[in-house]
Design brief:
The complex is a heterodimer of chains A (about 290) and B (about 450).
Chain A lengths: L3 H32 L6 H19 L2 H22 L9 H23 L15 E3 L4 E3 H23 L1 H18 L4 H22 L10 H16 L4 H21 L4 H15 L12
Helix pairs in contact in A: 1-5, 1-6, 1-7, 1-8, 1-9, 2-3, 2-4, 2-7, 2-8, 3-7, 5-6, 6-7, 8-9, 8-10, 9-10
Chain B lengths: L15 H16 L6 H8 L14 E8 L6 H19 L3 H6 L11 E8 L4 H15 L3 E3 L4 H14 L2 E3 L24 H16 L4 E7 L2 H18 L2 E8 L7 H8 L5 E4 L3 H13 L2 H4 L1 E4 L6 H5 L1 H4 L3 E4 L10 H14 L5 H20 L4 H8 L5 E3 L2 E5 L6 E2 L2 E6 L12 E7 L1 H4 L15
Parallel strand pairs in B: 1-2, 1-3, 3-4, 5-6, 5-7, 7-8, 8-9
Antiparallel strand pairs in B: 9-13, 10-11, 11-12, 13-14
Helix pairs in contact in B: 3-15, 5-6, 7-8, 15-16
Classes of the chains: A mainly alpha (about 290), B alpha/beta (about 450).
Amino acid sequence: MFSWGNFISQCFNGLVLGALLALISSGLTIIYGTLGVLNLAHGAMFMLGGYAGWVAYTQTGSFIVAIMAGALFVMLVGVVTERLIIRHFYARPAEDQLLVTFGLGIVFVETVRFFFGSLSKTVPPPALLSGITPLGFMVYPTYRLALLGIVTVALLVLYFILYRTRIGMIVRAGIEDAVMVDSLGINIQKVFMLVFGIGAMAAGFAGIVNAPVVAIAPDVGDAILVQTFVVVVIGGVGSFGGAVLGGLIAGQIISLTSMIDPAYSYVMLFVAMTLVLVLRPYGLLGTAGRE
Amino acid sequence: MSQSKFTKGKAPVLSRRRVLHAGMGIAGATLIPGLGGIGAVHAQDKPAMGTWPAGSQGSSVAIAAMVPLTGTYAVQGADELKGWELAVEHINTNHPLMKTLAPKINNGVLGKKVVLKHADSAAKPNQALQAAQTFINQDKVILMTGSTSSAVAVAMNKFAQREKILYMPGISGSNDTTGKDCVRYSFRQGFYGEMAANAIGPVMVKQFGKNRKAAFMTPDYTYGHTTTKSVMDYLTKEGGWTVVTNQVSPLGTQDFSQYLTNIANSGAEFLINVNWGRDAVLSSQQAKQFGLLPKMTLVLPYQIPFMAKEAGPEITAGVLAATDFWWTLEDKYPLAKQFVEAFQKKYGYRPEWGAENAYVSFAHWARMVTEAGSFYPPDVIKQWEKGETIPSLLGDVHYRPQDHQAVRPVILVRGKAKKDMKNPEDFWEVIDIVPGDKVIQPPGEFGCKLGDYT
């Protein structure tokens, strides 16, 4: 039976999930757009952010410190990985890039499992953001509402970096034509390293801010990775705006379909992706020829 | 006419050389199939099948465990694996506990050491079958085990029947495993959905009353569907309960917000969570985030090992659950005490029911093989099908010949509040031990047809 309360609640669920997917996808899409590398370790980086934050939280008891630790640790992992491994694969076939990032993902996941086991870890939200908020027509978990705000701010910061700073301009130029940027005398290798670090940081940040919602475990990034790829395809490869739009659309599709029959929610997500691929092969905000 | 040089007008005399020739001829003939003799009788009675006899011709026999070490059921799978490891160690060393469960073991079974091989199944049927096939080819395994997802168990059932290799599912809660998907080559020691429903249902109706409203959360595969149906059937028929919603989610779901929102708007008073493993932990934690708990009463018909440890007593306190085993049963059963002590000494924590189920399964297999005095699979199966009363960690049990299901107790537990816990693992209080024959359905009710021996 249809109920407005349920409908609005599901829209909220979709919004929160969509915002989170948007943040993770934006990291994936700028890496792919700039470096041409499809990072299959992105889900594992989401997981690493959660664990780094959890370790920081258990040591300090501070959620703020946990967020910073999660984001910065994964940025560091991203930079080191790019310098040591990824850069050797820029000129190699896409299959090699897929294999090496897929392998890195396994290494990250199993390393965490080796040290922390498979039992899930919980990072509680700050006391101020715990509990339930009555919104009149419904009640909603306070932290999920806060998560919407946190992710929105993070996306705005990422937007500012990409569209309002010189480095962002170089990154965007790199997405359009990396060879041209290089020939203009800009050290594109450093830009690549930075982009990989920023993209990884977005995943790590999402991993720790999502930890109070979904308890972390070594496999926590697996499902997210699949959804993130769908979002990137819907939004358009290499498009920051596309990642945000795709994330929000994916979130609403999953949530609103669940209202009718949850079993079809992910089916509908793939139906939407297929429709986009048929009608707009480069995604909603993608550009032909961009890789 | 010349006489034979042997007779020379006397009775024939056989030389040593002739006797040897004749003997070699007979021996040679018996080695040729179809020419009669002792060898032919053996070949007709026990033709080679599966990994028999190749798998038991060396100094050891191999067992393969396809167990989830990654994914949604990784935690429970790792615990099960420890139970199997301990059982194999005890079989090979004549441990007093194993000797009680399988008296004829003698530093192994039938003169062979037992070797355990294992691979990660990730709770995926195709991955489990691939690993099993590899173990058959490489190690000639004579017993397969592992599931933790009934989707794997029913797939492995069919595979075991086809390959003619014995299989014990380990954790498998689906009615179908020894129901419509049962096979001759598979035996289940643990409890399952129907037994759980018939054990926990009366307590729910008695404790919570009749005509209540319940919401179900169900994982989308055979375990979830059959267990939910069993519990639903009991509560609606015997208690007049109404099922206001049943939220079915895929295995491995992480964000349950959509499902919980539907439940929040359903008017349910009870949340009956059939999800399992990490799915159960996450869905219950998120139910609390959404304020469904403690507003609604949480019930776990098929208890999840380690859930209390992961989710914490703030969620499991007061929760009613049905299970296979809980370590405090050591106070009542001496064999359970021996097991808990041996397990804790080796692994540093008290075993959950996956480990118990794994250990007892192997003990029962060792018992059947040694009692049969043969590794030949039909001999072992027929020994099992005698349905003899045999010991388990929780008293005497028996296997039904009609569906190969163990008739064993179901344990009802209630979650303890943190203040009542006597040690960090004292999460559950045993409130009842329900005899298996009181809660098991009649044989054949779920459509079991076992199939052939050979």
